[in-house]
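Input:
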Amino acid sequence: MRRYLEGVASLEETQELEALIVKDASVRQDFLRYTHLDSALAGVRRSQPSVVVPRRSVWLSWRPLAAAAAGIVFGMFCTSVVFGFVGQRQALKKTPLRMMQPGFEDARMPLVKGFPPGPALWTGDVAKVVSAEHGITPKDGHHMLRLETSEMGAPLLFPRLYQIIALPPSTAEEREIEVSAAFAAADTSSTPHYSIRVYAVDAAPEALGADWFASRDEAIAMAATGFDKTPGSMGWQSFGLRIQVPRKARSLVVFFGVKNKAKSPAKLPHYLDAVQVSFIESSTLP
Amino acid sequence: MTDSEQQRHDLFLRLYVEHEESLRGFVRSLVPTLEDSREVMQDVAAVLWRKFEDITSMDDFRRWAFGVARFVAMEFLRTRRRDRHVFGDEALRLLAVSSEESEDAFEAERRALNDCLRKLTEEQRTLVEEAYKPGVRIDELAARAGRSAMALYKSLHRIRIALMNCTQQVLAQEERT
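Output:
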């Protein structure tokens, strides 16, 4: 039982335990008691220091509005490794949000123009899923997203992409979420400004209308960061941010943009890849 | 958010919080590791909220939520069967049935656990706290403590068994008084 619940049981051990669980109700009951205790101990760890917080108390202590002002922003960037190191005494646990469409590996994925009509859907300006081209190979997998710099012959100065993520309910007052991505330019001489912005919203994804971005100041938390590409630099530029998301938040709007210099608009496309959105949990090492 | 949306959200949160620990324990019984159960619970919460408008009677929330949790866990296991040994559908079905039937007893044991944790030695308590931190690997924890991973696993197992016995005693005592 112990080995199964640590994920290290052999096939024979798993089958033996399974047979007992199916045949013997008392074994089944003991197994359930053990797993419920295991889960409860993880819960005790969540509600330290010394007592299990009664569920009613958790509910009554909910302060939805107080959390609204708690958008704390961490912006950082580097060129190769994102967030590899935070502090000498903190270990980070990153859990990718499973309710988002993270990558561009599905080359047939629809890319709707404008603001997303629902969650887990990439939308934005003229863009296309492509494989390696213009000397740029995908950062993750075999595909990346090409952001065009012109549309029907006219320069496109601010290509951008959006995605709405439906946040699962949480009992935590705040959750820390990290958003990171990698940008690349086919034109090494170009000097665009790459940006990531994240908005926490207290409305459900389906309630965000097509014009939501115009009223983005109403978001209950917001974080933004950017990266200025220098002339001549090549390859992927990876950077990201962290945002403290209040419990009240039900949606996360993530925005990825490129700002081309108006005086010298890039003629070749930009690329986006390795988009990651993760819950961050830190634990202090002894 | 409109008033009705806010009310619906509030109602959902109240019901979810009320049953969250039960659901966590149930999901934990269906998947092989604590990390797996955390991942599954993330999906369970999202699906519950997404489908919340489908529920017709709030009295059915617990049964409905357990059904959703079981479905999500089984989906998760289907993707894991290729690289990990997991139970088959019949065992999962029986665990689901027993878990629902015994939910009140598990709830009582969770309450009693509070008393029992105070009876652990400082060393035992520290080990539990460290081992249950999210993302902690027992082999790394063992290396830091200068012990083998197997020794740590066994220590934790003994603590859990002691806590299970203790909760039974606490509940028996409560019944007598």
